[in-house]
Design brief:
The protein is mainly α. It has one domain. It has three helices and no strands. α1 runs antiparallel to α2 and α2 packs antiparallel against α3. The mean pLDDT is 81. This is Membrane protein. It is found in: Cell membrane. It is a multi-pass membrane protein. Keywords: Cell membrane, Membrane, Transmembrane, Transmembrane helix.
Length: 113
Protein backbone atom coordinates (compact mmCIF):
# COMPACT_ATOMS: atom_id res chain seq x y z
CA UNK A 1 0.00 0.00 0.00
CA UNK A 2 2.87 2.39 0.70
CA UNK A 3 4.18 1.82 -2.83
CA UNK A 4 0.80 2.81 -4.25
CA UNK A 5 0.61 5.95 -2.09
CA UNK A 6 4.10 6.91 -3.20
CA UNK A 7 3.12 6.39 -6.84
CA UNK A 8 0.04 8.57 -6.42
CA UNK A 9 2.14 11.27 -4.73
CA UNK A 10 4.51 11.28 -7.72
CA UNK A 11 1.54 11.50 -10.09
CA UNK A 12 0.15 14.48 -8.15
CA UNK A 13 3.57 16.12 -8.27
CA UNK A 14 3.91 15.57 -12.02
CA UNK A 15 0.41 16.97 -12.59
CA UNK A 16 1.33 20.00 -10.46
CA UNK A 17 4.49 20.62 -12.50
CA UNK A 18 2.53 20.28 -15.75
CA UNK A 19 -0.15 22.67 -14.47
CA UNK A 20 2.49 25.21 -13.44
CA UNK A 21 4.12 24.89 -16.87
CA UNK A 22 0.76 25.53 -18.51
CA UNK A 23 0.20 28.62 -16.35
CA UNK A 24 3.69 29.95 -17.13
CA UNK A 25 3.14 29.43 -20.86
CA UNK A 26 -0.30 31.09 -20.87
CA UNK A 27 0.79 33.98 -18.65
CA UNK A 28 2.88 35.45 -21.44
CA UNK A 29 -0.19 35.39 -23.69
CA UNK A 30 -2.24 37.07 -20.95
CA UNK A 31 0.33 39.85 -20.48
CA UNK A 32 0.48 40.41 -24.24
CA UNK A 33 -3.31 40.64 -24.51
CA UNK A 34 -3.57 43.00 -21.54
CA UNK A 35 -0.98 45.32 -23.08
CA UNK A 36 -3.25 46.17 -26.02
CA UNK A 37 -6.10 47.78 -23.98
CA UNK A 38 -3.51 49.69 -21.98
CA UNK A 39 -1.97 51.04 -25.16
CA UNK A 40 1.46 49.66 -24.35
CA UNK A 41 3.56 47.06 -26.04
CA UNK A 42 4.73 45.21 -22.94
CA UNK A 43 6.13 42.14 -24.68
CA UNK A 44 7.42 41.57 -28.17
CA UNK A 45 5.25 39.42 -30.41
CA UNK A 46 7.68 36.50 -30.13
CA UNK A 47 6.94 33.63 -27.77
CA UNK A 48 9.68 34.56 -25.31
CA UNK A 49 11.31 32.62 -22.52
CA UNK A 50 8.17 31.97 -20.51
CA UNK A 51 6.57 30.02 -23.35
CA UNK A 52 9.65 27.88 -23.84
CA UNK A 53 10.00 27.29 -20.11
CA UNK A 54 6.29 26.49 -19.77
CA UNK A 55 6.49 23.89 -22.52
CA UNK A 56 9.61 22.44 -20.87
CA UNK A 57 7.77 22.13 -17.53
CA UNK A 58 4.79 20.40 -19.14
CA UNK A 59 7.13 17.92 -20.82
CA UNK A 60 9.07 17.40 -17.58
CA UNK A 61 5.85 16.71 -15.68
CA UNK A 62 4.73 14.20 -18.29
CA UNK A 63 8.12 12.47 -18.18
CA UNK A 64 7.95 12.32 -14.39
CA UNK A 65 4.53 10.66 -14.60
CA UNK A 66 5.87 7.97 -16.93
CA UNK A 67 8.94 7.42 -14.76
CA UNK A 68 6.74 7.23 -11.66
CA UNK A 69 4.75 4.40 -13.25
CA UNK A 70 7.92 2.57 -14.24
CA UNK A 71 9.26 2.99 -10.69
CA UNK A 72 5.97 1.80 -9.21
CA UNK A 73 6.07 -1.41 -11.25
CA UNK A 74 9.77 -1.95 -10.46
CA UNK A 75 9.24 -1.48 -6.72
CA UNK A 76 6.18 -3.72 -6.82
CA UNK A 77 8.27 -6.49 -8.37
CA UNK A 78 11.11 -5.90 -5.89
CA UNK A 79 8.68 -6.08 -2.95
CA UNK A 80 7.30 -9.37 -4.23
CA UNK A 81 10.83 -10.76 -4.63
CA UNK A 82 12.00 -9.20 -1.32
CA UNK A 83 14.88 -7.34 -3.08
CA UNK A 84 13.89 -3.68 -2.68
CA UNK A 85 16.48 -1.06 -3.69
CA UNK A 86 15.62 2.67 -3.53
CA UNK A 87 15.76 4.72 -6.72
CA UNK A 88 16.96 8.32 -6.86
CA UNK A 89 16.13 9.40 -10.43
CA UNK A 90 12.67 10.82 -9.62
CA UNK A 91 14.01 12.57 -6.53
CA UNK A 92 16.74 14.17 -8.63
CA UNK A 93 14.25 15.19 -11.34
CA UNK A 94 11.95 16.81 -8.78
CA UNK A 95 14.85 18.71 -7.20
CA UNK A 96 16.02 19.88 -10.63
CA UNK A 97 12.49 20.94 -11.58
CA UNK A 98 12.12 23.01 -8.41
CA UNK A 99 15.58 24.51 -8.94
CA UNK A 100 14.78 25.35 -12.58
CA UNK A 101 11.47 26.94 -11.61
CA UNK A 102 13.19 29.04 -8.95
CA UNK A 103 15.97 30.19 -11.25
CA UNK A 104 13.52 31.04 -14.03
CA UNK A 105 11.28 33.05 -11.71
CA UNK A 106 14.23 34.99 -10.28
CA UNK A 107 15.51 35.84 -13.77
CA UNK A 108 12.01 36.70 -14.98
CA UNK A 109 11.35 38.98 -12.01
CA UNK A 110 14.73 40.71 -12.33
CA UNK A 111 14.08 41.48 -16.00
CA UNK A 112 10.53 42.69 -15.37
CA UNK A 113 11.58 45.30 -12.78
Amino acid sequence: MANERTFLAWIRTSIGIMAFGFVVEKFSLFVRQMSYPLGKEVMPPSRGYSSIFGIFLVALGALMGVLAFIRYKKVERQIDEDTYQPSRILDAMLALAVLAIGIFLVIYLIHSV
